[in-house]
Amino acid sequence: MAHAAAMLNPRIRADVVEISEFPRMAQDFQVMGVPKTVVSDVVEFVGAVPENTFVAHLKAAAEKLSKG
Question: Element (H or E) spanning 42, and its range?
Answer without folding.
Answer: none
